[in-house]
Amino acid sequence: MNNKSTHPIIRLLKKTRLCEYSDCWLWEGARNWDNYGMIKVRTKKITSTHIISFNFFKGNIPKGKQINHICMVRNCVNPEHLELVTAKQNQQSSFGKRYIECKDNIDGHYFKSIVKLIK
Ligand SMILES: [Zn+2]
């Protein structure tokens, strides 16, 4: 299986590790200027990693809704840390908050076993 035909969720979990401290699933691949994880899903199409995770584990994002990181870790892709909000709610919830980053370090063992299950 080459890179282009591999399901984005598998590619995502391969580069994700578990933060033991906060339960965050930390994407460790490319990020944009704002610290959100980014992944190329089709030629030239780049999507945020938390959107890929939400779509896979929880479903489509209804029109007019956005995803808010409850944990405030922008490269986190744990579906349990993602909630649907309106643009206004998203703005309000992030106002004045400082986005944090998980610093602990354990290996990606947990996700390797999930990837095997999905395959
Ligand atoms: Zn999180």
Molecular structure report:
The chain has 119 residues and is an alpha+beta fold. It has a single domain (8-102), classed as Alpha-Beta Complex (Homing Intron 3 (I-Ppo) Encoded Endonuclease, Chain A). It has helices spanning 8-14, 49-57, 87-94, 109-118, and strands at residues 16-18, 25-27, 38-42, 45-48, 65-69, 82-86. The protein has a two-stranded antiparallel sheet. The protein has a two-stranded antiparallel sheet with strand order 3-4. A two-stranded antiparallel ribbon has the order 5-6. The chain is globular. The chain starts with 7 loop residues before the first helix and ends with a helix. The structure holds zinc ion (ZN). Residues 22, 24, 71, 73, 76, 78, 81 line the site of zinc ion.
- Strands side by side in the biggest sheet: 1-2
Compute the gyration radius: what is it? 14 Å
Which molecules are bound besides the chains?
A: zinc ion
Based on secondary structure, the structural category is: alpha+beta
Number of helices: 4
CA distance, first residue to last residue: 11 Å
Q: Major sheet, described briefly? A: 2 strands, antiparallel
